[in-house]
Write a structure and sequence with these properties.
InterPro entries: Aldolase_TIM (IPR013785), N/Namide_PRibTrfase (IPR041525), NAPRTase_C (IPR041619), NAPRTase_N (IPR040727), Nic_PRibTrfase-Fam (IPR007229), Nic_PRibTrfase_pncB (IPR006405), Nicotinate_pribotase-like_C (IPR036068). Catalyzes the first step in the biosynthesis of NAD from nicotinic acid, the ATP-dependent synthesis of beta-nicotinate D-ribonucleotide from nicotinate and 5-phospho-D-ribose 1-phosphate. Belongs to the NAPRTase family. It catalyses: 5-phospho-alpha-D-ribose 1-diphosphate + nicotinate + ATP + H2O = nicotinate beta-D-ribonucleotide + ADP + phosphate + diphosphate. The structure is a single chain. With about 475 residues, the protein is an alpha/beta fold. It is about 40% helix and about 15% strand. It has 17 helices and 19 strands. Helix 12 links the parallel strand 9 and strand 10. Helix 6 packs parallel to helix 13 and helix 7 packs across helix 15.
């Protein structure tokens, strides 16, 4: 029978999390590897890790990098408390670890450099959108948290950018995904990434207020049913809601969508009611929206209910009379972005992974992007020592020796960059079905270093000096 160690005061069953807990929000092997590095005396060797995706999710022609702000905030605050260290020691797992390991945790903080592409920038397979240059133990320890925030927010921002691209600039796009997100923290990140990726507002009150935004929403069927039952009719339910929220959008498909629209049309026409919008959440959205539009010609119609970019494209092609969309489940869930975080240089020695299907490129790299007429022409993946050839280097220094070197960007700035980035991509890269991702050229210098590293690795494997 497994014995559960006494972890002291650090135990709590509610699994709440605060910024102070983030140092332990990691996989065990990050800590055991750090302890091993200390034992071998190499923990302070300078290491470079790069975060990238090997391949994009199916039918994604590009990815929008997102999550950098939360990554930097995490690195700024990284530290271990006495109670956290005591809890780790109580597990018994680290019984053979050096005392220096505990001293390192007690006194340590992130002291490295961070290079990253700005949030809202399109990236492609094998292009690093973040690089960490730091003492080995630090660079190793932070892998899990960085992948968690960057992978998830990149997924949401990419979906949001695609939704905006399909729906058009005039459509109202609302993030409704909190109840379907994978955790309360995930819901906050999803709301942020969705707004930065192109959506107009979120229904998540906490996320909106923390981000300095106005939360947005309508009502649920429960209110209509409850007030209809108590006050006699759906019309009375709408009147009651408008008593406290004048002109607010109304959900009109609880019972009979067209009957509800007809009654509202009479009140709007006679001036008895002002109405800023109606929401349809079920049924044949094409037919219903067209009928509602004929009854309420000047009232915006918002549709919701498991919508995604493919469904919006279908609705638009079929002539649906819809002015906005509420996006939830399919925005905040779905095929993940499988970003990876790999060592590329240790103590000035380029290294690479050579596993079948998972090989990586060695050395610290830069993405060089070229444009023609404001449109992306090509990307070249090269070494940081290479000179741009009428190209724009994408990776920027955002943190030096543990301190930020740039002010945080506003959501408006990131959203604008996202829109500009998507607009600059080739049409075949933006399409939803069988998109063609930008082909990334591997520079001659990187190709040469890759071959040299392979040869050196092969010699080392055979014990050849």
């Amino acid at each position: 029978m497994t014995t559960i160690p006494d972890l002291g005061s650090y135990q709590h069953q509610d699994l709440t999390i605060s910024a102070a807990d983030y140092s332990l929000l990691t996989d065990l092997y990050q800590l055991t590897m750090a302890a091993c590095y200390v034992g071998e005396g190499i923990e302070q060797k300078q290491a470079s890790f790069e975060l990238f995706v090997r391949r994009s999710p199916e039918n994604f022609g590009y990815l929008i990098a997102m999550g950098l702000e939360q990554a930097l905030a995490y690195l700024e605050k990284l530290s271990f408390t006495h109670s956290q260290i005591a809890a780790l020691q109580a597990t018994g797992i680290f019984a053979h670890a050096s005392d220096r390991f505990w001293s390192l945790l007690a006194d340590g903080k992130f002291t490295g450099n961070v290079w990253a592409v700005p949030e809202g920038t399109a990236v492609f397979a094998n292009e690093p959108f973040l690089r960490i240059e730091a003492p080995l133990w630090q660079a190793q320890l932070i892998e899990t948290y960085l992948l968690n925030t960057l992978n998830y927010q990149t997924l949401i921002a990419t979906r949001a950018a695609r939704l905006r691209d399909v729906a058009g600039e005039q459509a109202k796009l609302l993030e409704f995904g909190t109840r379907r997100a994978f955790s309360p923290q995930g819901a906050l990140w999803a709301a942020r990434a969705a707004l930065a990726g192109g959506l107009d507002a979120t229904s998540n009150v906490l996320a909106a207020l923390q981000l300095g935004q106005q939360p947005s929403g309508t009502m649920a069927h429960a209110l209509v049913m409850a007030l209809s039952a108590m006050e006699g009719s759906e019309a009375e339910a709408f009147t009651a809601f408008h008593r406290y929220f004048p002109g607010a959008p109304l959900l009109i498909d609880t019972y009979d969508t067209i009957a509800a629209a007809e009654q509202l049309a009479i009140k709007v026409k006679t001036g008895e009611m002002e109405l800023s919008g109606v929401r349809l959440d079920s049924g044949d959205l094409i037919s219903l929206s067209q009928q509602v539009r004929s009854l309420l010609p000047n009232v915006p119609i918002v549709a919701s209910g498991d919508l995604d970019e493919w469904e919006i494209a279908r609705l638009k092609a079929a002539g649906a009379a819809i002015d906005g969309y509420g996006l939830g489940t399919r925005l905040v869930t779905g095929t993940p972005v499988n970003g990876v975080y790999k060592l590329v240089d240790i103590d000035g020695i380029p290294v690479m992974k050579q596993s079948s299907g998972k090989a990586t490129y060695p050395g610290r790299k830069q993405i060089f992007r070229s444009f023609v007429g404001g449109k992306v022409k090509a990307d070249r993946l090269g070494l940081i020592t290479e000179t741009p050839l009428s190209e724009t280097p994408l990776l920027q220094l955002v943190m030096k020796e543990g301190q930020r070197v740039q002010l945080p960007e506003s959501l408006a700035e990131i959203r604008q960059r996202t829109a500009a980035t998507v607009a600059s991509l080739p049409e075949e890269t933006r399409r939803l079905t069988n998109p063609v991702a930008l082909q990334v050229e591997i520079s001659a210098g990187l190709q040469k270093l890759t071959e040299e590293t392979k040869e050196l690795t092969a010699k080392n494997a055979k014990g050849v000096k």
